[in-house]
Amino acid sequence: MELKKFMTGFCLVVIVMSAISWFAFNQADSLTFRPEINVFLWAAPAFLVWFAEGKGLNKLCGEYLSLKNINWKQSVVILATTAVWFMLIPVLTIYIAGNILGCDSFGHLNIGILDIFGFSGFDASSLSGYIAAVAVDILLSLVVGSVAGLFSVFSEIAWRGFLPKHIRCSRYVLPVAVGVIWTLWDIPTMAFSEFHLAFFSMLLKNVALSYFLIEVVRKCGSIWVSSAAFGIIVTGMFVPVYTVASTYALTAITAFTALSLWGITLLFCRTDRVEKP
């Protein structure tokens, strides 16, 4: 019943916001309403969960936002691994495919501007300076991304809290279902880009990320941790360590990195809490 109510509200919001987006896109100043649309889509999932479950705000926050069940040690390990993994795997992939093998669709490393703030004093053109600058970028991604990611908790309540709780399927099929729903939610934002390319690219990334982020909640016991992990991933994408020449390459690299990290989390991190049948 709760899932049906959620999906009813979900469909209504997507249809209305898509209509508004396509209308705004066809105006002379097509980007005028884009920030408002993004903010609404960022916050609305939490209100849909509140509407669907029909619980008081205190009870809802206690269920999804409580800190008492967090495995802090494991959370720190997973967040640190996320920062390292989402820096090193794209760097190595692009360096091998782009710089060494000359596959232009993968792009190239931006060795000269690796130091994103330009004040570390590292000579990124040398090997030692390159490694030091990568380490600085990983640290910045971990700190800045973890903090920024906490603001995505309004969405994580739905994608990593409510949906995994109410969708009845195996743990290996669940991320696909969540990834599809998560992607459909972003349809209103696709009015400002090439729809088919944006949709299928986002679908692949969201499904892959769902495997990892749902496992993070399962291992760490809180959507706060998955929010921080998501922030680290997004922040890492904006660090100018490399230039990806195509959306397809960026999608493939992100999906591969997320799925490989999911496998590591699945194998090496224990689940402390007892899962509901």
Automatic annotation (TrEMBL):
**Protein name (record):** Uncharacterized protein
Q: Which organism is it from?
A: Muribaculum caecicola
